[in-house]
Amino acid sequence: MSGVWLSLALYLLIGRVTNWNRFEFIPGYAVCSVVFTTTERKFAHYIVVFGLFSLLPFFVACFSYYKVFTQLRRHKPSFNTVSRRPAGRMISVREINISRTLSYVAAGFLFCWIPLWAFAFWKRLSPETAPRVVELLVTLMLFLSASINPFIYIASSLAFRRELNKILCFWKVARIVPVVTDSAQRKRSWQ
């Protein structure tokens, strides 16, 4: 994490010291942002940023999920019941379900964030052609990313549904009352 922060700070600092870019307030985004002195520098910056911060993580994530899904596919035929284990490595049904849920979470995250990044590049490279309604839809997708995970967990996990039902319907849940048995009473009488 320190390396990521340091590389980003150095990238911005070197750009500012060499007069490659400057910072200005961008009213459409309501933030200060990098402004480039020439269009060639702007294009080079976005190629680097898009490659390092979008394409590289995307391909690493795709490769990782490819490996997970090939492992799941390889072990899936050997699971006829919940109690059976595959012949080679020990992977439980619970681990497979967790991996599947994580892949749904990652897909939901990508579904919500890819339009934002695509629109951000579109607006940076050609701001006059970016319609306001698309900006509002992208913002809605961004907010959706913060609320989509509980629905994914509800759809993919029976245990999560049970616990959520207990929380939401707390008045229906039977109260746990300690039961005193004869052996417990005898133990107290000896003390």
SSE order and pairing:
Elements: H1 2-17, E1 21-26, E2 31-36, H2 39-75, H3 93-125, H4 132-147, H5 149-156, H6 158-168, H7 182-190
Antiparallel strand pairs: 1-2
Helix pairs in contact: 2-3, 3-4, 3-5, 5-6
How many DSSP-defined strands? 2
Radius of gyration: 27 Å
Q: Outline, from the CA principal axes? A: elongated
Helix content: 55-70%
Poorly predicted residue ranges: 80-84
- Briefly note the structural class of the backbone: mainly alpha
Order of helices and strands: HEEHHHHHH
Strand content: 5-15%
Q: Strand order, main sheet: write it out.
A: 1-2
Question: What's the mean pLDDT score?
Answer: 76
Helical run tally: 7
Description:
This protein has 191 residues and is mostly helical. The protein is 68% helix and 6% strand. The protein has a two-stranded antiparallel sheet with strand order 1-2. The protein is elongated. It starts with a helix and ends with a helix.
